[in-house]
Amino acid sequence: MGSSDSKLNFRKAVIQLTTKTQPVEATDDAFWDQFWADTATSVQDVFALVPAAEIRAVREESPSNLATLCYKAVEKLVQGAESGCHSEKEKQIVLNCSRLLTRVLPYIFEDPDWRGFFWSTVPGAGRGGQGEEDDENARPLAESLLLAIADLLFCPDFTVQSHRRSTVDSAEDVHSLDSCEYIWEAGVGFAHSPQPNYIHDMNRMELLKLLLTCFSEAMYLPPAPESGSTNPWVQFFCSTENRHALPLFTSLLNTVCAYDPVGYGIPYNHLLFSDYREPLVEEAAQVLIVTLDHDSASSASPTVDGTTTGTAMDDADPPGPENLFVNYLSRIHREEDFQFILKGIARLLSNPLLQTYLPNSTKKIQFHQELLVLFWKLCDFNKKFLFFVLKSSDVLDILVPILFFLNDARADQSRVGLMHIGVFILLLLSGERNFGVRLNKPYSVRVPMDIPVFTGTHADLLIVVFHKIITSGHQRLQPLFDCLLTIVVNVSPYLKSLSMVTANKLLHLLEAFSTTWFLFSAAQNHHLVFFLLEVFNNIIQYQFDGNSNLVYAIIRKRSVFHQLANLPTDPPTIHKALQRRRRTPEPLSRTGSQEGTSMEGSRPAAPAEPGTLKTSLVATPGIDKLTEKSQVSEDGTLRSLEPEPQQSSEDGSPAKGEPSQAWREQRRPSSSSASGQWSPTPEWVRDPMPGEQGLGFGQMVQGRELGWGSLAQGSSVRMAMSPN
């Protein structure tokens, strides 16, 4: 049968389904087989030949027919999993049913009356294989579907390479095979790399798309009042009911981390040959991050003190997460596995940054946001992996791509989620001393970004990019300002030498944030000033000798500190500053920051969509709205930290585990909102943070430990007066 005839027959079947007003019996195989037995339709054909309007029409006018269609399609998948899909016809039926369910399921999920449909029991589908003998213990349709997908993902000669010489396997062999021997890719817990097979990759991708569609039901549900609500599809798939949980988790992780989009580096090879692995890798990454969507606070992480198994994971049976995917991830502990994961993620994150002499000669992937979420999950659930990352020099191979993506996405409101996950990863990493120390490595690999040219370290790159985000991002990024500055505070005690460009950026931020109209605009805007002052205090206290550029910039801008120390406290002057702000709501500009020339080969960040607002510090929302609930401590948990006493190490920087973080969790809610109802009082100006040991503006600027006056006078200042 030709392709056009198949499409025509399939379309006729869809029309018949939408026009039938009477229920079609489930036993009418001649009618139902039209949808999958006699057709060879691609996923694009299914989406084109089954319009959304017709699916909704069947749902409203002939609900029993839609229910039977789903039931019969799941039944065919179960039969294919049980038989092992030996014939080409069986394989085609499985693919057709998978594509049809992928198309139909979202329209079932969107209707509240249908949401319990897949969790209703199906007569004859017993949990223990009893079948019709135990209908009271019947298995819900959703469970049957998920188990069939899991079986099909390890079906010999369909999604994995067969290990048998014979082409015919019995049904018993399908159910008894050890799927750990059929892991898709070498890596964590598996040393053998199977021969690439693009047909297997495409079949895996079809099934993973259906799996993602099943997991997507949560997108159509109203927000749950309690945060601990779980996705039943994910919960069941990642439970002990799924006998393929371990090999599937390992297959997905290894497939992502082993992927090399460049290969041997032959120019334009991605234009000459189709890459069937990239779509599979993207689907695998998406399935991984969805299955790892687990509240780590709800269950304790398993201990890592058991024996090593063939899967390179701890074989103890701790009271760990019920989600097996989270459990397996948290138990990875071999350094060679950590190295494999870190190298793989760093390679993929760095791929869009590759530069060649031949334009567009290398393949560029587009799923870096999924990779960042996966990296966050790895650090969150496996603290040994986090510590391995922090002690490895490869952490900079993660940092540079993140800064590139943050800078590139800063003007695009549609990518605000990318901005959040990137900033949160850096916030988590910045809590460790090793990360701050690593930032002193010279930055020599020039990634084209529209930032000023500088000669310096990775710390300079981080601060310059953060300055760019703050000064030229869109308004929805303003809640992240204190996160960005908190990162700088956390690493500041370890920064041995900042360039003149970076020093000017920091002083420009202080100058902008310390204007009276901005300080008096919202109850918590002064936190940003305190962050910057803490940065200066840390650098001068611990790394004074190597930071002559910063000291020179501070002296040049000493008037800013003098103005901060002498803010007006009388009501008329405060009122006048607020009135001036309302008359001239100026955005934070870069006119005084010595922007300079951007890097060669860079391009401006994508502009915000039409109708979006430009950054204006006038309308900054309360900075506790986001970070008060989302701040991450050093061990990855969400908790508040009190300022700790500091101790110096031999090199002058704070001792390990004790960086200066007085403002890391400065999130005391204001009694007034940050909207127009709040107005500063003279008492607030004198001491904006009562109860915090009197950290008024004057006291903070004068510096209880450093003596800003003597510094400004230049006593004991050793520096090169010429900028870099």
From TrEMBL:
The gene is HID1. The lineage of its organism: Eukaryota, Metazoa, Chordata, Craniata, Vertebrata. Residues 590-600 have a biased composition (Polar residues). It comes from Macaca fascicularis. Residues 297-316, 571-697 are annotated as: Disordered. Pfam families: Hid1. GO terms for cellular component: Golgi medial cisterna; Golgi trans cisterna; membrane. Coiled coil: none annotated. InterPro entries: Hid-1/Ecm30 (IPR026705). This is HID1 domain containing.
